[in-house]
Every structure is written in structure tokens, then in C-alpha cells.
Amino acid sequence: MLPSDQLSSYVEALRPIIYIHHFDFDTIDKLIADAARSTAIYEFNLANGHVDFTTKCQKQPYDLQTFLALFDENPSSDQPETNSFLVLKDVHQELSKPEIIAQIKSIALKTIYIENYYVTIFIVSTQLNIPKELEKLVTLFDLPLPQNPEIIELLNEYCLNLNIQTSEDDKAELATSLKGLSQFEIRQILNLAYQQNGTINRDDNALILKEKEQIIKKSGTLEIISVKEELDEIGGLDSLKDYLKNKAQVIRNMGKAKRFGVDPPKGILIAGMPGCGKSLTSKVVARLFGVPLLRLDVGKLLGKYVGESEQNLRYAIQTSEAVSPCVLWIDELEKAFAGIGGDGGGSDVTTRLFGYLLTWLQEKESLVYVVATSNDISVLPPELMRKGRFDELFYVDFPKPEERRKIFEIHLRKRGKLSKRIDTIKLLKDSEGFSGADIEAVVKESIEKAFVSDEIELDTSILLQTIKNTRSLSETLKVKIEKMKKALEQYDMKSASAV
Ligand code: ATP
């Protein structure tokens, strides 16, 4: 459905207040004009009062209250104001005034209950601030990001206007890189590319990716992570690694797999002990699948206004869908959703946020492969663990002896220190209960020790000494870990290790 059709359908369904949280007012104006067809449009903006919607020339220097009163007081069906769109721009600060809230509410209720009175209020703002009193009357409208055909159209229009010759192949390639950006952002990037090179072609891909990274970063909740890690840098966790290798075959050949009848993979939840490779695996997944990695910071989702948190999540999901195929890594899941459905009792906002995420996970058809990680699943809502949300739930335990040996080898090899002087088997007994992160720390510290002791060669005894002086995570977090283990036992989770 086209965005303007979606907007029209809200108007026809008598949604009285439509909140559009966006910064590109030009694009939104076009959309509202399309949805209005012959309906009169009245615009108010904070700088100029009542302005002409098309020319933006000031009509009356009204304040918002006077402007709203035109539509609120004694309307009769023969006045044009009784069948109109009110476009209120950047009025988010005014929405904390009780008299303004009351007027908007009154207009909204008239639209719902009074015959022949149809005034749809559009609040268009760069900030989201929905007063609690209006919450039930407000519909949030998301402008979907342009898809391939729209981006190609935009590129054609841009090249035509500036008389730029660009091959169809180059346009197709650029369109793929520009996915995930709004029309406004695409135009900004094209302007920059044109200014720098005097033309637009596939060489601009590097610039696009750099700009895209910035834009995604500015969203505040998503981050593009560049991945250097490879699968063989994970010691142990063989069962999880085999599972992911199989998924990689599907994702790398999704077209063929779909035709064969394979469903698009949804994602996995990896829970378990701290410092044991959950984050490392999440990064490796993206590399293995050959797709970008987006990290969602759930701690930053929560906003202070009504609807802001959902809007943040919606935006993050929308962006990841537009960038798809990609891996969306939801790190420390428990940070956002602790307490929901349990004794803690999550707040309204976190419960709604969680509901939104669950529905998306359940219904998702796009190739956004979700890797959710969590240390403490005891505080996570049980609904999350039900089938249909993730393809599989894995738990990661402290590494077994053979896994520890591999982790020692990986970190020694990485630093060029794996030699005959080191017998990794001898390190296993004393490193019982060490996490991967502990082992890495032991290797690093031992190399430093060897360096400061007149640059002697690293050997087993130095490593053993460091191990003896190290308090492992399983020791320092003993009580917490017992609690985590109990919580893990309640769910039907697969062990990430094969041993
Ligand atoms: P947390 O839950 O505390 O975030 P985590 O399980 O996500 O921990 P990671 O961040 O993946 O742990 O691990 C920290 C570092 O420890 C890794 O960057 C890696 O260097 C090392 N490490 C952990 N587990 C392994 C492993 N299985 N193989 C190799 N290195 C590991």
C-alpha cells in the first residue's frame, strides 16, 4: 500500500489525530496533499501562525489556541472548517499546555461523534510528544522507507534534473546501497556525491556506505558494527557453530532455498554465562552469512514521551528491514524487558514495547536474522521463549576442558605466542570455571609479564602463575551464576557445546 493510501485509509476510518514524527516536512506535505484530494488544508506552524499550506505565506499571525478555536467553537456543517485537515507543525512544546490539549481533544471527539464534522488533525513534528490525555486518540504514522523501485525513480529524477549520464547497471547498484535511507537522506547523499565528483555512478558506493553508517548511528539505537572476527576464532561451542553453518547455507542461497520450500530463518536467542562468547558469536554470524551487522541498543530505546519508545523500536526495525538481509543483534535483552510477565511487573511502556517486538518476531518475513543475547534469562518474560519467536534457543556454559584448550590456543596464536614451550593441556586443571574472557585476560597478562621480565619467552609456567593469581568470573559471580543456571534449567534450550 502506498504511504498516501495508508494515510487516506486512516482519515477515512475517522482517526482524529495523526502524529507524523519526521523531519522532512516537504515530503510529508506532499503526502498529506495526496491524501487530502479535495479536502481543504489549514496549516499552523509555530514560527508564522496560520500559513497557506501551498505557498507557506502567512495568513494570520494567530497563536495555536486562536487557530484551533476556528475549528472548535460552534462549528456548523456549512462552514468549510468542518471538513478539513489541520496540519500543526513543530507544536510539540505547545502539547504540554492543558488548554491546547483540551482544544485538540475537543476537535478530535467532534470528528468521532458529530455528524458532518470531519476535521483530521495532523501533528507533524521532529519530536515525539504525545500527551497522556490524547494517547487513545492519536495514531502514529510511520513513513515507510523507499524500496528499490522508488529509489530508482528518485535516481532517475535526480540524474534527469542535473543532466547526469548514469548507466542502468550503476543505478541498480546504487539503489541497493541506498536502501534503508529516507528520500531526504538519499537526496542529501546524492548532492554530496555530485558535488565531490561532478557525476553519480557506482564509485559513490563507498561514500554512500559511510554516510549510511552515520545516519544509522544518529538514530541513537542502532549501530553498524564492522566485523573482523571469524568462525575459527571461537573456541568450542561446536554445536552452535554447526547450527549456524547450516543457516548460512540457507541465507547465502535464500532465493533457491525459498523455491525449495525453506522458510526464511528468524533468528536465535543465546543465553548463558558472562564472557563465554555470546557477543563474539553474534558478530561472527554476520560474517558467516556475508551480511551487515546492526546492533540494537535496547537500553536506549526507552524515551520519556508517550509512544517515543515504540517509535524508536519501530524505527530501528524499519531500518533493519530496509537494510536486509542483515543480522540484527539485540544485546542484553534483559535490560529492556526485565520484569514483564513476572513478579517485577514491567511498566506500561516496556510491556507495549515487548508486545511489539514479539509480534514482529512472530510475523517477520524479511531476512533480518535476529541474534538476541542475554545473561540473565530469569528476568525475561517466558513468552519470549515460546516456539515461533526464535528458531532455536541456545545456552552457553563455562567452557569444558577441551574447549578451554582451544580458547587458550586461539588467543595465543592470535598474538603469535603459540609455541612448543607451552603445553596447553597443563593449563586446564587450574583454569576450571574460567570463561573465555578470563582465558583471554590470562594470555594477555602473561605476555605482558614475559615482556617486563626482560622479554623472556612465554611458557607454561608463566601462564600457570597468572591463572593461579586470577579470580575467575564463575568465582566472583558465584551467587548470580547459580541463579542463572536455575533459570536456564526451566527452558528447553540446546547446549551450544558439543562436549
Ligand atoms: P557478556 O554476557 O558479559 O557480554 P559474552 O558471553 O557476550 O559476555 P564475549 O563478549 O563474547 O562474552 O567475550 C568476551 C571476549 O572473551 C571475546 O571478545 C573473546 O575475546 C573472549 N572469548 C569469550 N568466549 C570465547 C570463546 N569461546 N572463544 C574464544 N574467545 C572467547
Map the helices and strands.
Blueprint: H1 3-12, E1 17-21, H2 25-36, E2 40-45, E3 49-51, E4 58-60, H3 64-72, E5 83-89, H4 98-113, E6 118-125, E7 138-141, H5 148-161, H6 168-178, H7 183-197, H8 205-218, E8 222-225, H9 238-252, H10 254-260, E9 267-272, H11 278-289, E10 293-297, H12 308-323, E11 326-331, H13 334-337, H14 348-363, E12 368-374, E13 392-396, H15 401-414, H16 436-452, H17 460-468, H18 473-476, H19 478-489, E14 494-495
Helix pairs in contact: 1-2, 3-4, 5-6, 6-8, 9-11, 12-14, 15-16, 16-17
Please, could you describe this protein's structure?
There is one protein chain. The protein has 499 residues and is an alpha/beta fold. The protein has four domains: 3-140, 3-Layer(aba) Sandwich (Rossmann fold), CATH 3.40.50.300; 148-219, Orthogonal Bundle (Helicase, Ruva Protein, domain 3), CATH 1.10.8; 225-396 and 490-495, P-loop containing nucleotide triphosphate hydrolases (Rossmann fold); 401-468, Helicase, Ruva Protein, domain 3, CATH 1.10.8. 45% of the residues lie in helices and 14% in strands. The chain is built from 19 helices and 14 strands. The protein has helices spanning 3-12, 25-36, 64-72, 98-113, 148-161, 168-178, 183-197, 205-218, 238-252, 254-260, 278-289, 308-323, 334-337, 348-363, 401-414, 436-452, 460-468, 473-476, 478-489, and strands spanning 17-21, 40-45, 49-51, 58-60, 83-89, 118-125, 138-141, 222-225, 267-272, 293-297, 326-331, 368-374, 392-396, 494-495. A seven-stranded mixed β-sheet has the order 4-3-2-5-6-1-7, with helices on both faces. Strands 8-10-11-12-9-13-14 form a seven-stranded mixed β-sheet, with helices on both faces. Helix 5 (148-161) packs across helix 6 (168-178), helix 12 packs parallel to helix 14 (348-363) and helix 15 (401-414) packs across helix 16 (436-452). It is elongated, with a radius of gyration of 28 Å. The mean pLDDT is 88. Bound molecules: adenosine-5'-triphosphate (ATP). Adenosine-5'-triphosphate binds at residues 234-237, 274-280, 375, 407, 410, 436-437, 440. Residues 234-237, 274-280, 375, 407, 410, 436-437, 440 line the site of adenosine-5'-triphosphate (ATP).
